[in-house]
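Agenda item 2: adenosine-5'-diphosphate complex prediction
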Amino acid sequence: MSASEAVVRCEQVGHVYRDDSGTEVTALAGVDLEVRPGEAVALVGPSGAGKSTLLTLLAGLVRPTSGRVVVAGQDLGALSERGLLRVRATSLGVVLQTPGRNLLPYATAQANVAFAQRSQRGTGPGGATEVGTLLESVGLGAVAHRAARHLSGGQQQRLALAVALAGNPPLLLADEPTSQLDRATGEIVLELMLQARDERGTALVVVTHDHEVSRRLDVEHTILDGRLA
Ligand SMILES: Nc1ncnc2c1ncn2[C@@H]1O[C@H](COP(=O)(O)OP(=O)(O)O)[C@@H](O)[C@H]1O
Ligand SMILES: [Mg+2]
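Presented output:
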């Protein structure tokens, strides 16, 4: 990948949810977005605007109902499940709004990070960061041996970030990663994301309501009613 090539590109992306009764909700429409290596993008907008939907599409967790999402040169919508898993393991780190979903609940914090490191081999520059160092950097050194399900919401949020960064992915996607954190801990999380960007060229896409977070990133995109404003 050349330095100028997008890490992720959305072309006229739309998403319509259909529930069991056939009711349709248009969550996204006509979204064009491009994120370059090392670029830090904030996604802001009111609740229900489509921010989380866009993030799950970028993560390959949901396929768009129209348009294309291209990550590391591959159209996610056209990939098999196996192909999607490969892109997710090599090109993406994801912190979801409910961080428990990223974690193995019965495994220790340390085992969660070690497992992520083995299963994700990022294509970003630089080697893997040591598990203990990563846990220390998110302030979880003291609970390294505690099961993920016994951590608080804020601790799980930080563990999810350590897991997402473990494989050194070229793209980190985070959905309100500081929402359950106090100001000081939120600052640690923000610094860690910016450090990955500065030292490894990790591109960031961060959904946030926190003005302090969006102010420190490079670009801010606002989503209103499923459209980029
Ligand atoms: N799984 C789902 N099924 C049906 N509708 C959904 C689902 N997830 C989100 N929506 C709807 O899609 C719209 C966008 O939601 P979301 O992407 O979660 O917004 P945001 O993250 O900006 O708050 C909302 O109207 C929401 O109710
Ligand atoms: Mg959301």
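Discussion summary: The chain has seven helices and ten strands.
Owner for follow-up: CH.
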